[in-house]
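task queued by scheduler; priority normal; single chain, no ligands, no partner chains; default sampling; output format set to structure tokens
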Amino acid sequence: MPLVPPNVATLQPYVPGKPIEEVEREYGVTGVAKLASNENALGPSPRALAAAREACARVHLYPDGSAFYLKEAIARKFGVPSAEVVVGNGSNELIELLVRTFVLEGEEVLTSAQSFVAYKLAASAHGRTLVEAPMRERFHYDLDALRARLSARTKVVFLANPDNPTGTWFLERDLLPFLEAVPPAALVVLDEAYVEYVDVPGFPDAMALRRRFPNLVVLRTFSKIYGLAGLRLGYLFARPEVAGYLDRVRAPFNVNLVAQAAGAAALDDEEHVRRSRALVREGRPFLEAGLRALGATVVPSQGNFVLADLPGRPGPALFEALLREGVVVRPVGGYGFPTAQRVTVGTRAENEKALAALARVLGR
């Protein structure tokens, strides 16, 4: 279309994981194990579910446009002023808002190649220059390479920790020299979608680092450990003036009424968080060991998923074969890993089903 700018015409849309219903309809299978989208295998927080059901009786009303009670609940949970909290329709909306609000024409978005594709999509959608540093050792952020690419044009830096789709992470001792090198006028966005699953020593304390680095923005989500992916709810912490500008730009009523109620309730559901962590800490080593036994190279992960590379097995063909077995994983060829699959940690039964299906497909 002649009226479409080149950055939109060339934009490659985000491809989500196949839903269970589509797989059952297309392949005639039942009992599908969906391990494609890093969802919480235990389902939603029961407290959040109860609050959502109650809120459904009020959906004839518009939501609170300021999300007052949700922001207060987040602020109370993390010990920050509510003026430093911004909520969005998933963390993806917040990523897009950060680019739209702060990155001017001629300025740059900096991130790591092969990291979460939403950073690239947000930059491309707004016609902003994307600068990517290569990963080191194929799967790990290279903060030195990122630092070398900082310039006067750098406006927003996106760092995923743990990363998606690799599951790898960096430590505070590695992050500090990078933060010290970033110009004060640039924002560093630390995307911690999977932080609640992390149990490695030396992981950055992002909330403490915010006090030292005012240009640090911390991005979180309710989609993973709280099990609210279908409600689309994310949040971030930023200094008040940054939060204020984001609030000016966001759409009115960007977080729906049910999501606001469910999110506030989920924050208090410590038992669900504990059980979700325990499921991953038990299931991830089981899944890793099973994948390695089938010949996969498994990347160490601190998320609720693992990246398994199977050399000689093209990702799309293997993905298709597993669909016919009733198992949905995520090929990541678009990230530059053509023979890899990202596999979410499911329940024990789902993990066993996935490994048995992979063994059949591989002829093991």
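post-processing summary
- The CA atoms of residues 309 and 337 lie 8 Å apart.
- The radius of gyration is 20 Å.
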